[in-house]
Amino acid sequence: MIREAWESFEKHAARQDVRCEFRVHAPRGEDERRLGALHADLVVAASPKDSWLDDGPPADVVQLATGVPFLLVPENWRNMEPPQRILIGWNASRESRRAIGDSLPLLALASSVTVLIVDPQATIPAGEEPGMEVAMFLLRHGVRLTVDPVQSHWRAIPEVILEYAASNEHDMIVLGAYSHARAREIMLGGVTRSLLAQSPIPLLISH
After folding, report:
1. Do residues 145 and 111 touch, judged by C-beta distance below 8 A?
2. Helix (H) or strand (E) holding 108
3. What is the value of pTM for the model shown?
4. Of 94, 112, 194, 199, which residue is most buried, by most CB within 10 angstroms?
């Protein structure tokens, strides 16, 4: 199985003329994974299972320790093409700005990008038009986008994001991970934790 994965990895990398390295880490080798991720441009990993709620998902732990962007792909995801319809969860935080910066190469190639702002009155600074500044930033980088401020109407934020993504046929979500303190997110069942466990489409997260 590992040899097949290695051969497939090498074949696709050669086809795209990408310089890369294939490594296999022990299931519980968190230090080894952290060190490997620390020197990567992007880490692609399987989406964590529900069981990670008990003892923490490897991808989640490593991402927080390194600050490297992670692309988490659901186990049953079969689309091998670059994402074309990308949804950005924007809340004007440092983490969400970092996620946008980390995903710019993909955003610039996408045919459609939506900046989704859930409950803008609670997240966007007073006096600022919701999404205007980040939209101008993305437009300067040639990103084709729309901005959509929506109300949650007391529904859970992850539910709103996932429902919006499904309704509009998005094939990737970009999100700033743990824009609130991680301890608070764990206690309150935060947006990051819920999307990590529930998203049926690839999720690019940055912290």
Report:
1. no
2. helix 104-109
3. 0.82
4. 199
Amino acid at 134: V
**102-to-10, 71, 106, 159, 175 alpha-carbon distances in Å:** 24, 11, 9, 24, 10
pLDDT digits (tens, 9 = 90+) for 82-98: 899 999 999 988 889 99
User: Which positions of the chain have pLDDT values less than 70?
Assistant: 1, 25-36, 48-65, 126-127, 179-189
> How many whole angstroms separate alpha carbon 207 and alpha carbon 199?
18
115, 117, 69: which is closest to 88 by C-alpha?
115
Which pLDDT score, from 0 to 100, does residue 65 have? 65
pLDDT digits over 117-145, tens only? 999 988 777 667 888 999 999 999 999 99
Element (H, E) at 101: helix 94-102
Nearest-Å Rg of the Cα atoms of the chain is 17
- Residue 205, burial from CB neighbour count under 10 angstroms (0-12, 13-18, 19+): buried
* E strand spans, the chain: 43-46, 70-73, 85-89, 112-118, 145-150, 172-176, 203-206
Alpha-carbon span 57 to 182, nearest angstrom = 14
- The answer to whether 130 and 105 are in contact (CB under 8 A) is no
Report d(CA 36, CA 21) in Å as an integer: 10
